[in-house]
Amino acid sequence: MTSDLDPTHNKELSARTAELSDAVGTSVVTLQAQFLGSRGERQQAQARGRLAVLRRSAGFTPEQHPLALQDVLDALDPALRQEDLGRGDAASPTERAAFDAMTLFALHMQSATEPMHVRGRSFGSAMSLLRSRSESGSLKPRFDALLAARDQRSRLTHARSLITLLRGEKIGFDYGMFARDLRTLASPHRAGVLLRWGRDFATPPRRSPEGTSSDSAAASALPATPSA
């Protein structure tokens, strides 16, 4: 039997998390474009309904909301490999990562008027940008609590709370990367993800010559919707 400590298995896991990142990233770009109205009123209404269902599942488990998991799996493009699907009555780690990323994305998009999926910006970098805009002294302790959480459900509870703050400041991040990180956190090598999040949080956003955050400038430069 292989383990996540085996180099061959680790390489395979890396390839599969990259596939998960692509699938979630493609799916949220489509949902985002539909929600923001660039695909027509009919698709906008459908996206609003789908995101409302997913949003109500944010913070829960796939087992608690099996219909939402079904909706997530149906939305993924491309679909998950057979070997990444769960067996029996429990969701697989990959299914959980996709479910958590997409339900939190739905929470992030609530009442949004601009993209909250921003390609290339990590969760930690988004939190760093929020920190640069906030005068609250509680933000770092809240982020530290996420990094120190002993289990995935506690970590996601903290992430859900922080994402509501990001939503309030209209700061987005890359949900494909986030799904990949959540899947990696389910393996013994999770420390690397937490290290990256902590490093990104501690790195101040770069400033352009005009004094505008380069992270914000990069986000605005990204296309809000992909070509169909």
Quick summary of this structure?
The protein is mainly alpha-helical. The chain has ten helices and no strands.
Describe this structure in words.
This protein is an all-alpha fold and 228 residues long. The chain has one domain: Orthogonal Bundle (Peroxidase, domain 1), CATH 1.10.520. Helices cover 61% and strands 0% of the residues. α3 crosses α4 (93-108). 38% of the residues are buried. Residues 208-228 have low confidence and may be disordered.
CATH overall fold name: Peroxidase, domain 1
Residues in β-strands, percent: under 5%
Number of domains: 1
Structural class: mainly alpha
Mean pLDDT: 88
Features:
228 residues, mainly alpha, Peroxidase, domain 1, 10 helices, 61% helix, 0% strand, disordered C terminus, Type I-E CRISPR-associated protein Cse2/CasB, Cse2_sf, CRISPR-assoc_prot_Cse2
